[in-house]
Automatic annotation (TrEMBL):
It comes from Salix purpurea. InterPro entries: MoCF_Sase_C, MOCOS_middle. SUPFAM superfamilies: MOSC N-terminal domain-like. This is MOLYBDOPTERIN COFACTOR SULFURASE MOSC. One of its GO terms (molecular function) is pyridoxal phosphate binding.
Amino acid sequence: MDLLSNLEGGHVCWDDNDIIQGKPTGAVRVSFGYMSTYEDAKKFIDFITSSFVSMPNKSENRNTLRTKSMLLSNEGHERNAGYYLKSITVYPIKSCTGFSVESWPLSSTGLQHDREWLLKSVTGEILTQKKVPDMCSISTYIDLNKGIMFVESPRCTAKLEINLKTDSYPGGMEEIELRAQRYEVQYYENDVDLWFSHAVGLPCSLLRCSSSQNYSSLNKDRSRNLCRDVECTLNFANEAQFLLISEESVSDLNNRLSLIDAQKGTHGTSVQINPMRFRPNLVVYGGEPYAEDGWLNIKIGNTNFMIPSQVH
């Protein structure tokens, strides 16, 4: 656990917070004297490395997620070895339709280019599907080889092409704040904004995340609590870099809804919910319903993920 994260979570010396987010916060002091040698220190470092440090295998590609990869939870116990990654979905523009891929590169913010753009009204309001339902009809696709994001809307006859290079447009920079997170954003010229204004039916601007900085929040007792890992960099995602859901959990939800309809005597009228209704980045299968709610960390392929307890 990161030292700064513990501090902002309210942990101080000699308090009773021995465990934060499932990890011990204690420390062991190692003392060296005048008779200690370099070899003594080297032996201790080697012990720490061999016992507690997971070293990456440079021969493996750890920067790409692939579907059908095995998923291990709770540090890879065999009882959780039946899960697999079924689908990967990227949502480049917040609240707009995403696209599914067989594999996709990772970045410091999660899936590369995921929720890297958003739409802002002329009054400064961030647009979402709840406020502007027409955003769900805007489809996106990114061609990494060409370095272009393609955007389509039934309201627009022409397909919009946006160059992914950060220096490909002369727009300026500004700062916005969203959910206790401050973002430095880049904006585009009028032709791009006019396209999106026509697509959603109201004047708006397209913004691209350039960098972000998160803040710690205060609990009701005024003590500090970190809402996410301080090392976690977000684009315009709400709480975490990835949203994961299992097919079994959604299937159980559908069964419960059907049971409720049966009890009401409305057979055959229940709506079956698709996992994509939750706009997940990752859909997994092969386990028990809601098992993912208890995961603290998982490994997909060669990549390890930590799941903060606050976002379960």
